[in-house]
Structures are given as structure tokens and as C-alpha cells.
Amino acid sequence: MDYDAIVIGAGSGGLSAGGILASRGLKTLIIEKSNNVGGCASSFAADGYQFDVGACIIEVPWVHDWFYERTGRRREDYVRFIRNDPLYELVDMMDGNRYLMPASFEGVAGLISRFSPRDAESFLKFCRKQGAVMDRFSEVMMQTPQGRIRDMLRLFTKYPRILGSMKYIMSPYSKLMEDLFEHPFTRRLLGTPAVIGGLPPSLQSGFMFWQCYAEHVGMYYPEGGMGAVPRGMAIVFGEFGGELMMESEVKRVIVKKGKVKGVVLTDGTIITAKVIVSNANSKTLYERMIGEPDVPKAVIKGLKSYEFSPSCAVGYLGLDYKIDLKAQHMMVLADSRLLELFWSKMFDEGIALGESVGLISSPTFVDPTLAPAGHSVLTFITMAPRHLKGGRWNDIKWDYLEKGINMVDNLYLPGIKDHVTFKTIATPEDFENRINLLNGSIYAYSMSIMSQMLFRPSNRSRCIKGLYLCGASTHMGSVPGAVASGIMTADLALNELEKVV
Amino acid sequence: MKRIISNTLSIAFALLGIALVAGGFMGFRLGIDQNRAVVTYGFLVGNWFMLACAVLFPFAADREYRKIKRRLLLLLSLLSILYFIYFGVMWTLLGETGMQVSITILFMLLGIAVLFLAAVDYIMGKEAYRPMTIDFFKQLPYAYFRYRT
Fold first, then answer.
1. What is the ipTM of this complex?
2. Helix, coil or strand: residue A7
3. According to the 3-state scheme, what is the secondary structure of A40-62?
4. Chain B touched by A175 (CB under 8 Å)
5. pTM of the entire predicted model
6. Which of helix, strand or coil describes residue A82?
7. Deepest of A15, A176, A321, A396, by most Cβ within 10 A of its Cβ?
């Protein structure tokens, strides 16, 4: 065998899995299609500016700390996180008023109490009780594989207190908001995480309120841009002798008698290994890289049945002035009915709404080194359908970018369009083509209950021995979920390799 | 008015489900002639009752789940007619014990199905839970295949 382990894809999951395998002395190779590590959570340079490709927030930083602890390193030596406070500057769509979302729970309660003291009290009470329980459960979930029934039993026996919160988990997010809060402002303020979590409020589980809680436990931005996070992991991987093969694409995974043997690259090179860890989307892996008859029909049927999570378009702007901001991130507050309407127009009807700006991030607010002196960087993320009704992204992308810039100029930062020195856009189609983000979906498959845990592809393949899967298509959550899935998958692979040895 | 009819129907189905499960247990205490009478009245009348519900009651439901409700009721109606056919074929072949066992098992299964219908109907009657429930049932048939992945 050429290697003990081959990792397909240098996304957050692939790097964490590869780093841990290499740190155990295994001869490990990571194969990456693009010329950059990190996938969605990476950066690119253009015209002297550093832009984040997609992800622009670090939540639950302890997941990143786990990776470094597991490899015997200190995270601070590789990447430093800067805490965001306030978290957002919020623009209320109903009346155009602006608010600052404080980092502390008490600060948020103070903001809410301006509209409803009763809501402020409900918020604090819910956070202290349910928020803390959900937070602890999330920690357990990020440490426990969930692909088998016995894994699920283990998960609930590790933290049985979560059963007391089932009422909230099974409740739609919109209902939770209605039950807990009386004032429409509070519902708008705390209702947005449903959409960020990948579903409209009527379909999102109340569990997503944890997102709201986690933000206030701590939201960070890495010094040097989001790309510093995967770069740190890649450095650790390299320090343990791991090999990173960039701009190489895996065409096929070799399977013989139900066991992996290696991979074939698009240039025909064959590389063999004892185990393969795939950070590619499970659909791409099973359908395109392996296929029938090695993959049973039932698995193919299961993969075809998944609905995708929402896709996004991102506008990248370089500006020739220092923007006067109060927070790194800006967000719009919208009524849940409006969010449902936006959602339905985009993802049911395939209409690209330029006014659906979801999140604005200006990383130069916390790290001015990301742009030339006196300049700023700004990205705006909009939810956007992968497949357009009666059109293609390439035909409308530049108009869409202009619409987005106008929207930012009108609603958030007046006068900004006169200062744009660099602009570009990445559409869902671009994300699919450039970083293999299937359907351009940010969380791979839908975040609905029937696509989670037992019903999401397993970290250890059920049909092929020696094959392991990590990344968003196996584990819920964004960057932290992907990093955690890489750690868990590496543990599962290590168990098998130890048995073989 | 719709809400009242919908809730009453959910409660009626819950009671019917409990009665069917209890009837299943009672099957062991009855003689063969009584069991045959139970089969005739229970399933044939039950079938017509379900059909009538499928025709009449979906109009009391909101538009988004009228179709689902009608389908569920028709499915139960079909199930009870299948039971009736089963007993029609087995009428002379089954002895007393066979009839008792069949009635117990099939009544209980039908009872559980009716209880399930009552629960679904109750949840679907609540507007806030409806989109999530519809989404859940849309994806439920794939649960096994997703588990296999």
C-alpha cells in the first residue's frame, strides 16, 4: 500500500481527519481538487484584498480547540480568534431602525426590554434553562457518531437531560417564537437564526434556538481571515509528515470485494491505501466515484431522496475607504412571514431575489490587514437558488451583483457604490464547480429532522469496508460540524486500522 | 367551526382506536358465532364509516391538508375491506381459536392505525405544526433508505 490513509478533499472535515490520522503516525495523503484549502471556509486574494469565500463567522470555537488538543498542539500558536462584540448591526426591515446586537445575554435582554420587559425575562429564562441544555447536547453530538441505532442510544444516554427539551426540539421555530415572545420585534430579532440554520421558520426545529444561544456564548473572527483556520490545520498536518496533493482530482475510488483499495486520479494515477476518508459530498462519492454494483441500490435510492439545504450567492467588494461600521456583521431583521415568502420564491419557484441580502461582513473592521491601508473589504451573502426558473446564473450574475450592491447602498451603507474599486461574485453554480459544493448547498443536505442523525449518511460506510465519510453531508452544522465530523471519522478509521495492525 | 369539527373527529378516532384495540383483546372471550358477527359488523360497517368520513370530513379541514386527510381515511377504509375479504375467505377454514387469534391481531393493528390517524389529524389541525408534519410525512417513506446510507 502507498499510504495508510487517503483523504479526499481538503475542506474543514478532511483537514481535521487528516491531521489527526497523521498525528498518530499514519502515512496520510490529502488530495484536493482546487488550489486552496478550506473549501467554504477559506480565503482568496484579489487586487490587494483578502476575501472570505463563504463562511465568515467562527462559532463554538472549542471544536477547533479539540483538533489542536488531539494533535498535541495549542490553537493559539496557529490561529488566533478575535471576539466579536457587538455581534451585529441590525437593520429592521419594518421601519429602517438600527440596533446593535450585544454579545452578552444581559445586553440582548436589555435591548429586548426596550420593547417588552416580559420578553426580556422569557429570553433570559429560556437561555439559562433550555439554551444551556441544548448547548451541552450540541457538544455531545459533536463528539458522537450518529449513524447507527446504538450510536443514537449512546448519544442519549450520554446526555439524557436533552429528553426534557424534546418539546422544544420537536416544535417548529416559528411556534417557539410565538410561545416564548409576545412582541413582534423580539420575534424578528430572534427569528432570523432559523433561516441561517437552513430552513424557513415554519419547518425549522426549535433546536435551532441553540444557534442564537451559541452566538452569545461567543462569536469570533480569525486573525488573517477565514483562510487562517484551514491553513492552521494544514500546517499541523504537514508537521506530522502528512502530504497534501493540490489541484488533483479523484475520479474513482477503487473497491474490490466490498473493501476500498485506493483511488484513481483524473490523470490516471493509481494510489493505494488501507482506508479512505472522503470529505466530498456523499452523493458525489457513492454515485460518481464508486457507483453500482459496489454501492447497493438501497443506498443510491436513499441518496437520491435527499433534499438539498439552501444555496447562496456571495458578492465580494473592495472599497477605497474605511467604512464607518459599528460591528463586523450587518443583518436585516425581517418578519417570519416575509422570510417564508422569500424562501418560497427562491427555493420553490427558482427566482433569484437581489433584495434577499442575508448577511454583510466587513472583516477589515476587526482585522485591517486584509485590505491596503485606508481600504476596506466587504462581502454580502444572499440566499439564492441553484437552479433558476428560465435562465442560467452566468447570464444574470453581473446584474445580480449590481442589484446586491444597490441593496447594500440603499439599506445598509449609503454611498458605498461610489467607493467600489473591486467587485466580483460567486453564484451557487460557481460554488458547485469550483469547490465541489454539490448544488451550491451550504450545509449539503436539508437540515430537516428526517435528514439528520440516523438519516444522514454514516461516518463509517455501511456498504464498503475501509471507507469513511466526513463533512457537511454527514453531520449537521456548518464549519464546526465539519471539523467535528472529521475528528470523529478519524477516530473510527483509527479503530479499524488498529484492528488491522 | 372547522376547528371544532376537526378536533371532535380526532377525539372520535382516538376513541375508536382504543375501542378496536380493546375489541381485539375481547376477541378471545367470544365464541365463534359472536366472532363472526364482530367481523361482519366491525369491518363491513367500519369500512362504510371510514368511506363516509373520507367523503364528508375533509371539507372540515383546511385546504392544505384536505387531500392528505382524505387519503389517510381511504387507506383505512381499504384496510378494513381487505380484512373483511380475509375473513370472508377464511370463514369456514378458521376454527374458533384461529378466528380469535385473527381478530385479536387484526383488530389491534387496525386500532393502532386509527389511533395514528387521530394523532396525525390532531397535529395537522394545528396550523403551526402543519408544514413540519407534511414535510415529515413526505420524507418518511425514505427513512429506511436514508438509514442505509
1. 0.88
2. strand
3. HHCEEEECCEEEECCCCCEECCH
4. yes
5. 0.86
6. strand
7. A15
CA distance B124 to chain A (A): 13
Report residue A288 as a C-alpha cell: 460518481
Domains in chain B: how many in total?
1
Share the mean pLDDT of chain A: 91
Range list of H helices, A206-347: 209-217, 228-239, 282-283, 297-305, 336-343
Note the pLDDT tens digit of each residue in A39-74.
989 999 999 999 999 999 998 899 999 999 999 999
pLDDT tens track for A127-180:
888 888 888 888 888 888 888 888 888 888 888 888 888 888 888 999 989 999
Nearest residue to B117 via CA among B72, B54, B65: B72
Ordered by start, the domain boundaries in chain A are 3-44+59-75+224-306+448-500, 104-215
Closest CA to A131 of A210, A64, A185: A210
The Cα-based distances of A269 to A41, A254, B123 in angstroms read 29, 12, 56
Q: How many residues are present in chain B? A: 149
Q: Is A3-44+59-75+224-306+448-500 a domain of CATH 3.30.70.3270?
A: no
Interface of B with A (CB under 8 A): 128-129, 131-132, 135-136, 139-140, 142-149
- Taking contacts as CB-CB distances below 8 angstroms, the residues of chain A near B129 are 171-172, 175
Q: Which residues of A touch B147 (CB under 8 A)?
A: 302, 454-455
Host domain of residue B22? 2-148
